[in-house]
Write a structure and sequence with these properties.
Radius of gyration: 25 Å
Helix content: 40-55%
Number of helices: 18
Distance between the termini: 43 Å
Shape: globular
CATH topology of one domain: Rossmann fold
CATH architecture of one domain: 3-Layer(aba) Sandwich
Number of strands: 17
Low-confidence stretches: 1-40
Strand content: 5-15%
Structural class: alpha/beta
């Protein structure tokens, strides 16, 4: 009977397949790439303790893992933070202890392990006991699983005063005073009278709390540097959250840089960078580069190009350094090598639109350059910055207008800060490059290409269509109905409505873009002939605010060798 049922099932399956091929034939020579992960990977999973539960800190890393065929395992949602509610650090550490032996690598957010996420860490008091306890935990973790590489990252405090410091006038005066402290600490001239005036505009207790936060953070970072020197941590990245050109944070960062110089730690094992949310994804790309080099491959060679030469030295909002310095820093962090155009594996093109600086005229020549590079087969990662976070300052609309095959880009990012966008675009491009260097079969190249196109399509939909257009329309409708604070949605009253607005507007925007020649244009990458026929975007608000969305992109892709 079992054989009869098995034969019947096989016949039915064959009949269904024949029906599909007869009545719904695929175009000649076209493959519809499968979603499954290639089999045969010898790697064990990578554990990720995310900075927080926002998609860039967690989902981007999972999606980046799909590009290189690596499973990224994350903690249960019940242990993670949720908006202003901190994660359960005790449960998080227990989970990590339990599962570390099943992995060969872990990417660990110290902010999550110690404070329960980035937002909680911004307000947390870090005692000497807290620091000692975390050090003991990490040493025990390493001793139990010495074969597992621990890649840790910690975010240094931002310049903006903690939310626990009340009064917008007092907070503004304290921030202005802290900027002058930063200038004075760097040996730059300051207006002493202005400092004295600002000093009387907030209570002394506010300044003490503000400065103590930096002292505590510096002590924690110094402990982590010590663990890296001991070999407990394989790699340590200290990121700077929402930096400024002059700040108390910059002074403490200089102290930590001086400490690193005294230690016997190779520069690639411990570094200080600008940024926060993108660091876990960057660490994944760095791990991929390390593995490529361990197999005898070469580090990716990356050339830098700017839509306008002046954009290299621009300092964009929430940054302490220029766009050019940030790009060079990110290339080094990924273990890549900066190269000239002729000898590079990929090009990072940085467009930094600023209507106040009259840079928008550069977009035409930049679009032509992108089109030429794509036609020549040069992989291009596009960073599409906007000083005022407006679509009219970005390059993408010009690419679409000029029928440049947008899906032929290797990577795209136009997130809210230069470090976020540069770090994300470079990490995606490097992951894609490393994966293709390791690919042997056509099927592997097909899977890698699909995964990268999903990442790329999601970045275009969120960074360009949502953050530059849809978010303003959603916020406008909410405000017209009486909700002025869209940064704090009411889950019981307007969250579902906001999600409906988001779904409708973003679907309308992406479907409109999908009909353009730029997004439907066929292109060739790594020997595969490709065309994206539909973006297939779904999105919703993961937190009760409109600033970020959780997005899934499952583009329909025609692929043929």
């Amino acid at each position: 009977m079992g054989k009869i049922l098995g034969a019947a099932a096989l016949f039915l399956s064959a009949a269904v397949l024949l029906f599909h091929l007869v009545f719904h034939p695929a175009p000649a020579g076209i493959w519809y790439a499968p979603d499954s992960t290639p089999q045969g990977s010898t790697h064990r999973p990578i554990l990720l303790v995310p900075l927080d539960s926002r998609p860039p800190c967690k989902d981007f890393v999972i999606d980046g893992g799909k590009i290189i065929g690596r499973e990224i395992v994350t903690p249960p949602a019940a242990y993670m933070d949720y908006y202003t509610q901190p994660g359960n650090t005790e449960s998080m550490r227990a989970w990590l202890t339990e599962h570390l032996g099943n992995a060969d690598t872990a990417i660990l957010s110290v902010d999550q392990l110690l404070s329960g996420g980035l937002l909680a860490a911004r307000e947390a008091h870090i005692s000497d006991t807290d620091i000692a306890s975390l050090a003991a935990y990490l040493r025990t973790l390493h001793a139990a699983h010495p074969q597992v590489s621990l890649h840790a990252f910690y975010i240094l405090p931002r310049a903006v005063p903690q939310d626990g410091i009340e009064g917008w006038r007092e907070r503004r005066a304290l921030l202005a005073y802290a900027r002058l402290l930063g200038r004075a600490g760097e040996g730059l001239p300051v207006d002493e009278d202005e400092m004295e005036r600002l000093r009387t505009a907030f209570p002394s207790a506010y300044l003490q709390k503000y400065l103590a936060h930096f002292e505590e953070s510096t002590a924690l970072a110094a402990m982590l540097i010590g663990l890296t020197e001991e070999g407990v941590l394989t790699r340590l990245v200290l990121g700077q959250d929402d930096g400024e050109e002059h700040s108390v944070g910059n002074l403490k960062k200089m102290e930590l840089a001086a400490l690193l110089e005294k230690k016997t730690i190779a520069p690639e094992r411990a570094m200080i960078v600008h940024g926060a949310d993108e660091i876990a994804l960057s660490l994944l790309a760095r791990i991929s580069v390390d593995e490529l080099r361990a197999r005898g491959g070469e580090a990716p060679r990356i050339s830098l190009r700017y839509a306008d030469a002046a954009m290299r030295d621009m300092v964009f909002p929430f940054m302490a350094v220029s766009n050019g310095s940030t790009a060079q820093e990110k290339i080094a962090m990924l273990g890549a090598v900066q190269s000239d155009m002729a000898g590079s594996d990929l090009t990072l093109l940085l467009s930094a639109g600023d209507s106040d600086a009259d840079t928008l005229g550069s977009r035409s020549s930049a679009a032509s350059a992108v089109k030429e590079m794509i036609a020549a087969g040069t992989p291009v990662a596009l960073v599409d910055l906007s000083r005022h976070f407006r679509a009219e300052e970005t390059l993408l609309p010009i690419l679409i207008e000029r029928n440049v095959p947008v899906h032929a880009l290797t990577a795209y990012a136009g997130w809210n800060t230069a470090s976020n966008a540069i770090g994300t675009a470079l990490a995606e491009a490097v992951l894609y490059h490393c994966a293709m260097q390791n690919a042997v079969t056509v099927q592997e190249r097909v899977h890698i290409t699909r995964a990268n196109l999903s990442f790329l399509t999601g970045r275009i939909a969120e960074d360009a269509f949502y953050l530059k257009e849809t978010i303003d329309r959603v916020n406008g409708v909410l405000r017209s109905a009486g909700w002025q604070n869209t940064a704090d949605l009411d889950l019981a009253r307007n969250w579902r409505w906001a999600n409906d607005l988001l779904s409708y507007d973003l679907a309308r925007r992406t479907e409109s873009a999908d009909t353009t020649a730029a997004l439907r244009a066929p292109f060739v990458q790594h020997g595969l002939h490709l065309r994206v026929t539909r973006s297939n975007i779904t999105a919703y608000y993961p937190w009760p605010r409109t600033f970020e969305i959780r997005m899934e992109a499952q583009p329909a892709v025609e692929i043929s060798p």
